[in-house]
Here is the input.
Amino acid sequence: MGLGSIGQDIARAALMNPELELIGAVDKNPALVGKKLSDVLGVPAGTFKVQSQLGLAVGRRQKVVLLHATGSRLPQVRDQLLEACSHSMHVVSTCEELAFPWLNHAPIAEELERAAKRAGVSIVGTGVNPGFVLDRLVATLGQVAGPIRSVRASRVVDARTRRTALQRKVGAGLSEDEFFKLVDQDALGHVGLLESAALCALGLGLDCDDFEEELSPVFAEEDISGAAFPVKKGQVAGVSQVAVGLADNQERVRLELTIAVGADDPADRIEIDADPPLSLVIPGGLQGDKATANVVVNAAPRLAVAEAGLLTVLELPAGR
Here is the structure.
């Protein structure tokens, strides 16, 4: 469900996965409804067409897992998730706020938990972040350490390597005033960093009682080319976000995310203050769009045999 850029990547990844059979596609876009999925993706994908309604795409098939990629905010996708439960479908979703919905949307989380258990299905929100780099991977690394005092993890992404929509989402090419105007409208920045911080704390056994987030622009120090559009010196090149988890006003979790065109030294880094201390660096960082598609697709078979209810990625098996 959802055939934007990420949704199409997920569909292609599903076609390549021998554990899955892709049986249908759903999108509300009138330009896509009625088209063969093969024509939308540009690769062979069977003969079925894109439907506007979930029931039409599923038919009477059983044990179906919905690969869901329609929105970042949980309130905007709530009805879609409940509809999937009404069809007894498991759901793997890229909705960032679904990764740990108890943080900011507890009533919806409780509603989804009840609906999933009633239907005997499982729901999980995942992706590259939240869902892997700054939470699940951190928690996995922490399993080999003794008592953990704190963690600091960062992800730096050169937005030139990512889709145009992401470059616009981080404010590339805007003035400072335009940037903060859109921030005030909740229209810029990465969604899900706070959810990652909460997952990170949970996975490492750090009892945080408060979570805070800051967002600021990254400015171009020179003219930058290579993006979907030119970014001039002095314009916004992207965004820097920091989420922290606090325990008794002491910082225990610190997550730093920079997504900007021309960002220096792209990489994913994790440092855990523990006995022994641990450090992990992924030079260049994980490619977000492809990684998200693969994470979603690889979770689907695991979810089909998981406990019913609303889950987090920490409850999924580590292996494929």
